[in-house]
Amino acid sequence: MTTVARYWRETPRRYNLGGCRCPTCRTVFFPPRSVCPACVTHRRSFGKMEPFQLSGDGEVFSYSIVHDAAEGFEMQVPYVLALVKTPEGPTLTGQVVDVAPDQIRIGLRVHATFRKLREEGRAGVIHYGYKFAPVSEPLAGTGTAESASPAQAPGERGRVRA
Amino acid sequence: MDAGIVSYGAYVPRYRITPTEIGKVWGVDGAGMGIGLNVHRKSVPGPDEDTITISTEALRVALVRGAIDPQTIGALYVGSESHPYAVKPTATVVAQAVGATPYLTAADFEFACKAGTAAIQTCLGLVGAHMIQYGVAIGSDTSQGAPGDALEYSASAGGAAFVIGREHIIARVNHTVSYTTDTPDFWRREGQRYPSHGGRFTGEPAFFRHVTECAAHMFETAGTSPKEYQHVVFHQPNGKFPQRVGKQLGFTDAQMKYGLVTPYIGNTYSGAALIGLANVLDVAKPGERILVVGYGSGAGSDAFDLVTTDEIATYDRRFGVPVQEYLDHGVEIPYAVYAKFRGKIHMGGS
Amino acid sequence: MREVAILGVGMTRFGELWDSSFREIGIQAGLSALVDSKLSSQDLNALYLGNMASGTLLEQEHIAPLLMDYAGLAGHHLPAIRIEAGGASGAVALHQGYLAVASGKYDFVVVGGAEKMTDVPDVAANRILGGTADQEWESVFGATLPGLWALMARRHMHDFGTTREQLASVPVQAHEMASKNPNAHYRNKITLEQVLHAGPVAEPLGVFDCAPLSDGAAAVVLGPAERARKFTDIPVRIAASEMATDTLALQHRSSITRLDATVVAAKRAFAHAGKSPKDVQVAEIHDAYSISALLALEDLGFETKGHAGAAFADGTYGIGGRTTVNPSGGLKAQGQPFGAVGVAQVVELVRQLRGLSEARQVAGATLALSHDVGGTGATSVVHLLERMN
Q1: Same domain? C184 vs C260
Q2: What confidence score (pLDDT) does residue B350 get?
């Protein structure tokens, strides 16, 4: 059992993908770091890293369909675990939801979505954070219902910013 | 009134279950039940979705569509009867998740199915009084009917978020009125998992009386009659009640067409009338008049008289999913998966 | 720095040791290594103990003095140091013991590795294992250790055309080898078909692609090479002991089909010893997952990137192959008591170099390599061992 503080202090990152950027070499990091590993002058970057907001866009760099769940994730089995490469630079670990196992693929365009990560039992706090969902993909089938109909799910999480 | 809807977004989880599938489990003619209720499918949230995530998704769409800086939000209210916590606000999580914290006021509303419309009224007051620049009102639920209960055929999940402001209004609110009495037609006591209801008592003395009286009060206040509205949206606990009350009041099927979404996604409770309104705004052109009459058990109705402005012609709806997509599509699941997702299976342990 | 030799080795059986406690298996391995070395306990200067997670697995910290105590040596008041580096804890303990003797600070040290995995339920063991990856930015999102290795496997298949069958050939060989190892957790042979049709753990990896959770302990005795013959008939010299680290989280690596920590540790080790991969006759490499073994062969320099799958499936690394890999059965079949693994690998290789491995003996082995990895590759350790003539 951990205290809520350990999760709470990361909520700006887990809810909103707040990363950071090195003021010298402009490399973006997620989660934020206090010193830039990419920059030869990294000792000078200590304490000077700037906040940087990720857009939530990305594409699947690699994925696995997890059947043997981590504790607290049993109700979501099977779930898609992925590395998602963002256009800003960082690669993120997260689940891809609203996608059928036979439709997940390397290169799939995804966007960050907001979901429950896990609960501290029935009486404890609920942890929320980012997962990813496909962009512009017809979402037939389901990851959890073997007998699901081929009906399409809401497609086009069209992502065009004004 | 110097306030109105500046932006909006809706979100409905992707899973669906049919009355036929539910009826199979309980030895009931589910198909017949579906026809009786005029509910063909209802939405089901995934195991990682709740009122907080649905509210957040809907609001994120609204903020992007309206190009609204979350830091300019002065108030955020979430209306729901399925707040994930009994004590601890939904609104604070949503506010943090959209980047609206810390300089805003936030609270959770509960008034059965009309908590979302109550939140809109509150925002109209704050915005109209120039106390805040933008107010956010969300109606969102992951409601449950007891297994085998009639409610199980309709209780579903979804929500919509509305940003209320004074500038770049896409739908101006001309009037809002309410009609409130103490009528115990539907309730859930503290600690109870599923709601109870008064059966047929939920009809005439509850839904129909409050909706018709509230609508009549609006016609009087606004000096209008049904024919002046291009669209009408009622609370829709099933597909039947809103159609019947619409007929009683003198509205045509054409006026009710876009506001009626429950037949395709079920009753999203606090989200129901608001998703109907979102569907209307998805298709509305400038200068169209809209009547919304919500209803919440317990009981009360809130009515809004709105008119779309020229701004809606250039309003950018490209981000997010049009409500029609949610009505047309979804992934059907069997009852067993539904039971697992909704926590209806006793898992043992602590 | 002086040359360091291995004077004695010992280990317990690996597997589900329901009757044995952590302290029992720990002292059994340590004392059998001491006996094997003909060293008196009076000569000992220190203990280095590799252990991944006694605190969460057993609710017991401070285990190095505990094992000294139950070995009957508390009265000597020796330095006893626990070392943690995930699944590479044992190998890092060996590195530390090596440095201590090489530096001249200590003459004779015991390096042990011990882990008791079965005193917690599997679900708890898996959660604890998740702690060798990044809890805050991997595990919290549902990433499991097999899931993370599966991400590497999927990308390796995508980039290099590695096939599911090639991956499956790794556990098949492991079980074949372990069938001749009386200490092994699994001594049954398995077929390619069985691996391919086993239940999925984290696709593309299935049950047989993943090493088990085992109990077990292993120990070696180290001393100065110039005095080695006094304590053993066939001393084995540590020709190189190198470790390297990388980012804890997989997501921060520049490549997920290459473990840079392994590449660097191997380069340093071969350079230090003046050897190359083709000089190695027998190797014990990290095969916690089938993909781990293929990555290791490439990153250690036995294969060019992308070619390990085809080479392994062709039998290149079996008995009689160019280099025999994991004659013990590896982590997959000999077993995976995490902190003990890196030391057990060396126990097997010392026995191979002494020519005492009976049915699984690699003929004429003189140079051996051990390779162990912690987590998803944040720590990698490479040792080169040479028979002293």
Answers
A1: yes
A2: 52
Determine the structural domain holding residue C90 and report its residue range. 4-121+214-236
- Which residues of chain A have a CB within 8 Å of the CB of B325? 154-156
Low-confidence residues in chain B, pLDDT < 70: 349-350
Assign a CATH topology to domain B171-311: Peroxisomal Thiolase; Chain A, domain 1 (3.40.47)
Structural domain total, chain C:
2
Count of other CB atoms within 10 angstroms of residue A3: 8
Q: Are C269 and C209 part of one and the same domain?
A: yes
Distance between CA C299 and CA C229 in Å, rounded?
A: 35
Q: Which pairing describes strands C282-284 and C324-325: parallel, antiparallel, or unpaired?
A: parallel
Please give the mean pLDDT across all residues of chain C: 97
Q: What is the pLDDT of residue A42?
A: 63
Q: What's the pLDDT score for residue B283? A: 97
Instruction: Evaluate whether C220 touches C111 at the Cβ level (below 8 Å).
Output: yes
Asked whether C186 and C335 are in contact (CB, 8 A), the reply is yes
Rounded to two decimals, the ipTM of the complex is: 0.96
Task: For the beta carbon of residue C361, count every other beta carbon within 10 angstroms.
Answer: 18
Last residue of a domain, one of C202, C236, C270: C236
Catalytic: B346?
Answer: no
Distance in angstroms (rounded) separating the CA atoms of residues C317 and C330: 13
- Residues C155 and C92 grouped into a single domain: no
Span C203-210, average pLDDT: 98
- Catalytic annotation on B235? yes
List, for residues B178-220, the tens digit of each pLDDT value.
999 999 999 999 989 999 999 999 999 999 999 999 999 999 9
Instruction: Tell if the CB–CB gap between B50 and A116 is shorter than 8 Å.
Output: yes
pLDDT at C352: 98
Q: Is B123 a catalytic residue?
A: no
The domain made up of B4-170+318-341 has a fold known as Peroxisomal Thiolase; Chain A, domain 1 (3.40.47)
- Min CA distance, A43 vs chain B (Å)? 31
Nearest to A155 among B48, B93, B329 (CB): B329
Residue-range domain boundaries for chain B? 4-170+318-341, 171-311
Quick one: C280 and C370 in the same domain?
A: yes
Per CB-CB distance under 8 Å, the chain A contacts of C126 are: 68, 70-71
A82/C151 CB distance under 8 A: yes
Kindly indicate the confidence band of residue A38, based on its pLDDT and cuts at 50, 70 and 90.
Answer: confident
**Which chains have 3+ CB pairs within 8 A of A?**
B, C
Catalytic residue, chosen from B21, B57, B83, B113, is B113
For residue C339, name the pLDDT band (cuts at 50, 70, 90): very high
* Residues 6+ positions from C339 with CB-CB distance below 8 Å: C49, C50, C51, C52, C53, C84, C87, C89, C90, C93, C113, C114, C115
Q: Do C228 and C86 sit in the same domain of this protein?
A: yes
Query: Nearest CA of chain A to the CA of C251: how many Å?
Result: 5
What CATH number did the domain enclosing C149 receive? 3.40.47.10
C137 with A93: Cβ contact below 8 A: yes
Confidence of residue A41 (pLDDT cuts 50, 70, 90): low
Option in B97, B320, B334 nearest A114 (CB): B97
